[in-house]
Amino acid sequence: xxxxxxxxxxxxxxxxxxxxxxxxxxxxxxxxxxxxxxxxxxxxxxxxxxxxxxxxxxxxxxxxxxxxxxxxxxxxxxxxxxxxxxxxxxxxxxxxxxxxxxxxxxxxxxxxxxxxxxxxxxxxxxxxxxxxxxxxxxxxxxxxxxxxxxxxxxxxxxxxxxxxxxxxxxxxxxxxxxxxxxxxxxxxxxxxxxxxxxxxxxxxxxxxxxxxxxxxxxxxxxxxxxxxxxxxxxxxxxxxxxxxxxxxxxxxxxxxxxxxxxxxxxxxxxxxxxxxxxxxxxxxxxxxxxxxxxxxxxxxxxxxxxxxxxxxxxxxxxxxxxxxxxxx
Length: 328
Known about the structure:
The protein is of the alpha+beta class. The chain is built from ten helices and 19 strands. It has a five-stranded mixed beta sheet. Strands 17-16-15-18-19 form a five-stranded antiparallel beta sheet, with helices on both faces. The protein starts with a strand and ends with a helix.
């Protein structure tokens, strides 16, 4: 994507347009390419750039909601569908480190708030994958997701959140191999304002740092010996699944280019459960991580909001973009 703001109206708008609020990345670029090819009107806004050059006006009394960038003005009230991927400015307002000054934090907060309020203002539009309040990193309740999945009939790995080292040792004695997971934010700033990315790791009863869990609760999960993994992208009633042929290591993320992905058909029972999960969470679009254990069971790991999906299309040929644009 070369532009941080684009208006594409191939013909006079009579029934509204698609508003795309996202990053300037390959995934968004592929989506915009499909919208252009199908001649569907859209407005793309890279909010992190827009705040430096654009302006907005929300007038509640007059029911006016306009954005202006250069000489172009856009009436947000005409948007019929909104593809929303949380901009950095939205997540950055949660930062409490010294990375930003007070004035910078105030600037960030004041540009994030009108964006987050759009879901209560543009009530006529359909949101993809969901409304902003459901997409904040603090809205991702992974433990609650596991409970819901279990309620819907999924097998889920045994999981605990605890601040007791003794609890962890008992858990390890029962389940053998155990992994340490991050169910909240996985990217942080350290004291030197360097970004730290927390990865999944294997832990054992003799880990010398195990006692540190008493300082703060951590998430421990039973390690499932897997036959393969599955990434399933759910779009309304359509499900696009890929089998991930990897047996070594804990996490294929970051190694997609060297990992075999092939099309995969999930059973009707698993598909029905995924759709019920989506409905319960109020999402129109999301990605799921599943594991086929060597014991023959399919385990629910997590729902990603919305999760990266374009690499699945690129590696398997699944027509995810076309299905997404069709829902707009």
